[in-house]
Amino acid sequence: MTLRYARHPDLRLTALEGEGVALHLGTRRYYSVSESGLDILEALAAPKTLPELVALLTAKYEVTAEQAEATTRAFIEKGLSTGTVTAEDVS
Q1: How far apart are CA 46 and CA 62, in angstroms?
Q2: CA dihedral in degrees (65, 89, 6, 24; nearest 10)?
Q3: pTM over 0.90
Q4: CATH: 1.20.1530, 1.10.150, 3.40.630, 3.90.930. Which one for 3-81?
Q5: Given strand 19-24, what is the order of strands in its sheet?
Q6: Which DSSP letter does residue 9 get?
Q7: What span, in angstroms and rounded, lies between the C-alpha atoms of 29 and 71?
Q8: Which pairs from 26-32 meet CB under 8 Å and 24+ separation?
Q9: pLDDT, tens digit (0-9, with 9 covering 90-100), for 12-71
Q10: CA 52 from centre of chain
Q11: Contact present, 13 and 86 (Cβ < 8 Å)
């Protein structure tokens, strides 16, 4: 199964110094996100696979692919549970 992730269409982002704030217009909830979380959400303006997101983080930050994958998986799982991220099976 190949999943593509995207940010929810009702999600709005604001970058602050070193982090960001996400507002879900549908639920009217605010979320504080780290700089790397903001990078992920910005990238998810268009659907991306986990390997594409990992490549984004390893290109920008000094982390291993394993570290980037663990961070990205955790972020995506949290996003799916809060409704800020959606998933689509494209296999």
Answers
A1: 24
A2: -120
A3: yes
A4: 3.90.930
A5: 11-16, 19-24, 29-34
A6: T
A7: 23
A8: 26/83, 27/83, 29/82, 31/82, 31/84
A9: 999 988 799 999 999 999 999 999 999 999 999 999 999 999 999 999 999 999 999 999
A10: 11
A11: no
